[in-house]
Write a structure and sequence with these properties.
Length: 372
């Protein structure tokens, strides 16, 4: 299955600003890449340019060594010759055709032999676990079953690349979870290259081998999901990933040897970077603290008041007030905390992220201590 390479891809719609701006992206053979970002950031446009449904204004696209699009060289391989499968949000099955016919129809149009079509339909129905519904009409199927038929129909011709645009967004939460697991399994079994558009960070986190996070047409970070979560390039990436989201504290920092003394309101903290950083004498920073790294303790630490407590059974999301700051925290286990109760919290580990306040860029990860 092919590697996809986007080389300086830009799309500018008439009169509009750039929907996609100088995007460089390599999607390796067999990757499961999510295009992620807020509404209007250029995810769908990028996917459509890979499919050949949208023409880039500038740049080149390669599938392995084959150039499928080049502005300069005037190459534009048509969508049907790119051998990609496309799965949309509205998967529109033919209502007057059975599952079998819905899947076979495309193969007939591609002039496959009858016996080959029969065996392929049978095979893909087994893969998608829809064999028992093969002679039903779409109206006789649940939403999840219909979606599985739509995926089967897309996969039937053995596309080299499967492009999906929010294919699960019409399903309810439970079904969406089941289908996520199904997609992950399919990715393993088909070995195809998957490119998946979503605005849901948890979907991108759980499904992908790599996430391409975009903002206003510009690539912000292209990393494996846990790296994007743990080592975000900038405040936008840090804020977009994770629920509850990262806490951001505005601080003023003063260099203190290899560490940084931070003042956030009346709170005094010491940040020790994991790798050497030459800090300026005095500067404004933003400190990023993931809620799971705010640790509730019995003794020591900082005193905080519980503003809200939201137990899910597995964990509890807390909002805490301490002098000059408000933090969200995650406490694991089935614990509820009384509103307005006073607890103590501390910082643990070395996954706190220091950002430059002016540029929003990550400076370094490090340890956080309460200043003596
Ligand atoms: P969403 O999550 O809302 O689907 P998206 O990230 O997929 O958003 P795109 O659909 O790629 O975003 O759109 C990127 C930008 O390009 C948006 O500002 C959009 O308004 C603009 N755009 C998209 N298609 C067209 C078009 N055919 N003509 C003009 N502008 C367009």
């Amino acid at each position: 299955m092919p590697r996809i390479k986007l080389d300086h891809i830009t799309k500018q719609f008439a009169k509009g600003s750039r929907a996609v701006d100088q995007l460089d992206l390599i999607i390796e053979d067999g990757d499961f890449v999510s295009l992620l970002g807020p509404s209007g950031c250029g995810k769908t446009t990028t996917l459509r340019m890979i499919a050949g449904l949208e023409t880039p204004t500038e740049g080149d696209i390669y599938f392995d060594d084959q150039c499928v699009y080049s502005t300069e060289r005037g190459i534009n391989v048509s969508p049907d010759k790119r051998e990609v499968g496309f799965l949309f949000q509205n998967y529109a099955l033919w209502p007057h055709m059975t599952v079998r016919r819905n899947i076979a129809f495309g193969l007939e149009n591609m002039k496959w032999e009858k016996s080959k079509i029969e065996s392929r339909v049978k095979e893909i129905c087994e893969t998608m676990r829809i064999s028992e519904y093969i002679d039903r009409y779409p109206a006789e199927l649940s939403g999840g079953q219909q979606q599985r038929v739509a995926i089967a129909r897309t996969l039937a011709p053995n596309p080299r690349i499967l492009l999906m645009d929010e294919p699960l967004s019409n399903l309810d939460a439970k079904l969406r979870n089941d289908m996520r697991a199904e997609l992950k399994r399919l990715h393993m079994t088909t070995g195809a290259t998957f490119v998946y558009v979503t605005h849901d960070q948890s979907e991108a986190m759980t499904l992908s081998s790599k996430v391409c996070l975009m903002k206003q047409g510009l690539l912000q970070q292209y990393s494996p999901p846990l790296e994007l979560y743990g080592r975000p390039n900038n405040i936008f990436c840090a804020d977009f990933m994770g629920n509850p989201s990262m806490n951001f504290l505005d601080c003023t920092g003063t260099a203190e040897g290899s560490a940084l003394s931070l003042a956030a309101g009346p709170l005094r903290l010491k940040f020790t970077p994991n790798a050497p950083v030459s800090f300026e004498e005095k500067k404004d920073y933003v400190l990023g603290i993931r809620p799971e790294f705010v640790k509730i303790v019995d003794n020591g630490g900082i005193e905080g008041r519980v503003v809200s407590s939201l137990p899910t059974g597995m964990d509890t999301v807390l909002s805490l007030d301490a002098p000059g700051i408000r933090l969200s925290a995650v406490a694991f286990g089935s614990i509820d905390y009384a509103m307005d109760s006073v607890i103590r919290f501390n910082f643990e580990g070395d996954r706190y992220v220091l950002f430059d306040k002016e540029t929003g860029e990550r400076i370094e990860l490090g340890r956080l201590d309460i200043h003596e």
